[in-house]
Amino acid sequence: MTESSASASPALGPDELDELDALLDELRTREEDVPQWEFCDGFLTALACTRRPVPAAEWLPMLLGDGLPLQAPEGEPLPLVPTFRDLAQQQRFLALWELRSAEVAAQLDAQAESLDADDAFQPEVIDMRGAIASLPEEERAEMEGQETPSFGQVWALGFMFAVENWPDDWAAPRDKEAAQWLDDALDAIVALTEDDTGRPEICMYDEDGPPSTSRERLEVFGEAIWAVYDLRQLWRSLGPRVETIVKGAQPGRNDPCPCGSGRKYKKCCGA
After folding, report:
1. What's phi and psi for 256, nearest 5 deg?
2. Residue range 98-144, pLDDT digits in tens
3. Of 212, 190, 209, 193, nearest to 201 (Cα)?
4. Which residues contact 176 (CB under 8 A, 6 or more apart)?
5. InterPro entries, from UniProt (predicted)?
6. Residue 236 and residue 225: Cα distance in Å, rounded?
7. Which are the contacts of 171, defined by CB distance < 8 A and separation ≥ 6?
């Protein structure tokens, strides 16, 4: 294998993805609400696009615990989230998470010209409707009546779960153009959380499998991926939100805001 082909290899190969699925299945024996990896990957991708780097002490319990931030001295391992069997299992999950997180960041920063490019960002999604439709008839019959998510839907729900749980970090910037950019990108991802009600024409699970996904859905999926690129670029260009601490006397309501926005204090930080 050449150096270039090695660098293009996924950070998480099939063995690591199987390990993650098995690990999450094991967690589900203690907590039935543990999400599938597709949801986790959407959540992870949102964190890669969040304006402020969110530490594991915040996101880990939000995803797999009670939502309360973990407390640990600087440089010390995080305390155990009870959903995990032990610290070793938790640390292995975090190690695999970091591999995927680095891969996502590298893909998004590469700014691919086409979503078909080798280095383009690809969400970890599965065509569940296609997978079920490809099962033998008897196995399909056992799953009748079960609600099956549309292609990319679970991933998008995971993404929006992160957005909704860190509202301050996803608040619209003051710049109107940037705020519109943010709204348009999030709208594209929200569209992917909706059901695919179009006529099934394509199977994303098996190219020779029965149709399970509409062409309109693939367009929505592609727009959501480009939206992720936009969000990563937007927040990286703006940087973390700066909290202005005003010492001494507070400015008057009609004075210029000390944050430097150029607006009156009453219409900015003093609102």
Report:
1. -60, 140
2. 999 999 999 999 978 889 888 899 999 999 898 888 888 887 777 77
3. 212
4. none
5. SEC_C_motif, YgfB-like, YgfB-like_sf
6. 17
7. 241
